[in-house]
């Protein structure tokens, strides 16, 4: 089978179609829209989709970023798990964007939760807990517990 490599330049004069599709997405204003791209193998579908992503320009009129999900369906042709792989690709992009938008405090809280979970799973956790209580008793007496 031939390798399917998207074109980096507009060899098929698809720029008008890509700009029109990007305009439709932009004009939808965040409302759901479906655009189908169909054709035989090698007709430029993947190249067109990449060109649409480029034509979107990254952000909408309100400054919110467009999230562009690339999914190569050819890799899953004939497999039952193609839908699952598509959902995973969408989930990965959404997760990356959510992590990108976190502020410092959110990241610190997530780190503290991961650290607490790691300490809790550590084999010496009961000892650590008892040791902490013994240190508190030695320093403050029983009233501080």
UniProtKB/TrEMBL annotation:
InterPro entries: KAP_P-loop, P-loop_NTPase. Residues 15-116 form the KAP NTPase domain. Transmembrane segments: none annotated. This is KAP NTPase domain-containing protein. It comes from Paraburkholderia ribeironis.
